[in-house]
């Protein structure tokens, strides 16, 4: 091993509790130290107040009975939890979960007894500010402006997860799209206004933000009476006030806008469209080519929308699809936004990077600049492909992004994030129309987000989660040299896994046809299998499902019975495109005509998420990747021998 990679391994050694609980002493020390620290804080609040619970209370039978009940229940819970999924183990390569970063876990545990509520500064004087800072940290990782002194600084906040962050993206895009229409309808004087309702509803997102800004400046110079009058008048025209029905009834030439997303998009997009009242039918799923959004199809759809005067709310590009880890051409979506906005069809570009967001750390230098592709590529066999590089390099030009710290951020659940490019747009989400004004002067950046509850979809919200994310980003800054070591490791693991899969396919070619259906863009690797000689997709699907039965959670059996945990997904011709489908079926020696026979018109394949930091155990010279393929080979032979 070269010294460089040795140094890398050493830092990572302190990052996690470890598969064997190796860092138990460290975590225990931290938890006890900060629990005591919390207790001293209580005692030092008003030391003149005497203890309210007597020192002899613990001898009372009621106390003892309560304690006994509590202990019994806690032991039962603890025992039941032993059936949990062993996310921490390098034998777990199923879904998007792994070990937890110690700085985040410790920060969260230490914050819990303070119980801050990030709904507002009143309930969380410390952690609300940390949440706004987390937004800036993530903005920097994505390439957005993250200097709060700048007028066009980005803004981000945490959500319960990617689902709610995607919903926030829809909500903000709709507010931005409809607001210029409200201004126009209210007839606000002195503002440079779009000439008609269609253009007002189709501004480039940058122009829409500029209009919000101009409106606020106009209000700031108006007299208090005028300000109130105009605010009320504009508010009455807004979509948030009238509702979808009232707004579109008032503007009968406008249709309800569509959301364009790739067919592999997460189902949170369907939920979001329903929740916002747009309706599921406004979500138009675009075909893909090679598991990425088909740029020609996007173009053709936008052309059709323009022709039919069908407004588009946003185009969604996915950075790291949930099922395949593929990265959509974000750069092409941005280019389409520019072209079509110039022709009168304005829409926002949102990146759903719930899974892949933290891969962006690999592309950032410590000073925040974008690294060159050669520099990013050093140390990898294939990553990043030119397409992936161009896509991720374009993140800073998008309008908003979803990132899940509880996925590739290795943090406990309840941590998603929404980040938008220019914070001035966020004023439209405020529950209080004149929140900006204390007197007449707008508050500063930090000041304005101290009442977070005004802008976020939730109300009360855990400040402890925020503390975990913040501290993690401070201990491991979001650039390639720090946090980037983690995604770098998962990419190397995925490349090793891919290479080993190809060797498996070669070694077992007499018994099974095995194919990596497409080279992975990131750290998810899929594997398709078909018993040698079989031509039927239905038979191949049944075979892969049997294999997966060995690889999935089964609470009726002891956990230790399982050698490995994996997951499955499917390949659908409408996502692959005809050429790719044929190529993969050919490679598997399957008859395309049999695909429809299995009911679903889809091929079941194994899916592996390679985010565990210990897949290659350097300490003991063990590759869990090799062991997995040995296990898989044995299972394949056993199933075939049993006549499956
Ligand atoms: C996981 C995921 C989501 C949903 O995020 P939750 O945190 O589960 O709510 C959305 N989009 C993508 C691409 C995802 O991978």
From TrEMBL:
Keywords: Lyase, Pyridoxal phosphate
Domain L-tyrosine decarboxylase C-terminal: 518-627
SUPFAM superfamilies the record matches: PLP-dependent transferases (SSF53383)
Source organism, top-level taxon: Bacteria
Gene3D superfamilies: Type I PLP-dependent aspartate aminotransferase-like (Major domain)
Record-level GO BP terms: carboxylic acid metabolic process
Protein name per its UniProtKB record: Pyridoxal-dependent decarboxylase
């Amino acid at each position: 091993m070269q010294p460089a990679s040795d140094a890398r391994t050493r830092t990572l050694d302190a990052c996690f509790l470890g598969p064997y609980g190796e860092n138990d002493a460290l975590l225990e020390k931290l938890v006890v130290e900060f629990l005591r620290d919390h207790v001293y804080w209580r005692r030092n609040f008003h030391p003149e107040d005497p203890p309210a619970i007597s020192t002899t209370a613990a001898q009372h039978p009621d106390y003892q009975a309560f304690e006994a009940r509590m202990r019994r229940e806690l032991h039962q819970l603890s025992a039941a939890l032993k059936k949990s999924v062993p996310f921490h183990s390098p034998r777990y390569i199923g879904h998007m979960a792994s070990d937890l970063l110690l700085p985040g876990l410790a920060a969260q545990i230490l914050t819990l007894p303070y119980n801050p509520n990030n709904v507002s500064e009143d309930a969380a004087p410390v952690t609300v500010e940390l949440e706004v800072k987390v937004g800036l940290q993530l903005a920097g990782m994505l390439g957005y402006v993250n200097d709060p002194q700048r007028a066009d600084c980005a803004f981000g906040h945490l959500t319960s997860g990617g689902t709610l962050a995607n919903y926030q993206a829809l909500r903000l895009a709709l507010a931005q799209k409809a607001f210029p229409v409200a201004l126009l309808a209210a007839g606000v004087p002195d503002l440079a206004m779009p000439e008609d309702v269609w253009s007002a509803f189709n501004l480039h997102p940058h122009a829409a933000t500029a209009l919000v800004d101009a409106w606020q400046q106009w209000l700031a110079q108006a007299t208090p009476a005028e300000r109130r009058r105009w605010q009320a008048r504009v508010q009455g025209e807004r979509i948030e006030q009238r509702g979808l029905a009232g707004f579109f009834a008032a503007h009968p030439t406008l249709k309800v806008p569509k959301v364009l997303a790739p067919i592999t998009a997460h189902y949170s997009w369907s939920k979001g469209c329903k929740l916002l009242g747009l309706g599921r039918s406004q979500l138009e799923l675009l075909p893909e080519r090679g598991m990425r959004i088909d740029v020609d199809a996007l173009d053709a759809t936008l052309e059709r929308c323009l022709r039919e005067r069908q407004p588009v709310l946003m185009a969604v590009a996915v950075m790291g699809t949930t099922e395949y880890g593929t990265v959509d051409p974000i750069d092409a979506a941005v280019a389409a936004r520019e072209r079509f906005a110039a022709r009168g069809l304005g829409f926002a570009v949102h990146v759903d990077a719930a899974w892949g967001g933290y891969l962006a750390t690999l592309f950032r230098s410590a000073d925040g600049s974008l690294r060159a592709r050669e520099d990013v590529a050093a140390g990898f066999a294939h990553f990043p492909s030119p397409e992936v590089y161009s896509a991720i390099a374009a993140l800073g030009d998008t309008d908003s992004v979803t990132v899940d710290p509880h996925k590739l951020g290795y943090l406990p659940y309840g941590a998603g994030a929404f980040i938008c490019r220019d914070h001035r747009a966020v004023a439209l989400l405020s529950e209080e129309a004149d929140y900006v004004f204390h007197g007449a002067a707008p508050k500063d950046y930090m000041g304005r987000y101290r009442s977070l509850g005004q802008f976020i979809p939730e109300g009360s919200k855990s400040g402890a989660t925020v503390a975990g994310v913040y501290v993690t980003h401070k201990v491991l800054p979001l650039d390639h040299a720090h946090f980037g070591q983690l995604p770098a490791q998962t990419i190397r693991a995925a490349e090793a896994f891919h290479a080993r899969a190809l060797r498996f396919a070669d070694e077992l070619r007499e018994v099974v046809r095995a194919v990596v259906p497409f080279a992975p863009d990131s750290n998810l690797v899929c594997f398709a299998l078909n018993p040698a000689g079989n031509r039927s997709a239905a038979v191949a699907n049944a075979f892969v499902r049997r294999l997966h039965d060995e690889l999935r959670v089964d609470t009726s059996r002891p956990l230790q019975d399982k050698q490995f945990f994996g997951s499955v997904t499917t390949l659908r011709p409408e996502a692959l495109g005809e050429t790719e489908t044929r190529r993969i079926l050919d490679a598997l020696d399957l008859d395309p005509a049999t695909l429809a026979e299995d009911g679903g018109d889809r091929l079941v394949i194994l899916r592996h998420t390679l985010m565990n930091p210990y897949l290659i155990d350097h300490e003991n010279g063990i590759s869990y990747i090799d062991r997995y393929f040995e296990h898989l080979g044995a299972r394949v032979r056993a199933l075939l021998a049993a006549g499956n």
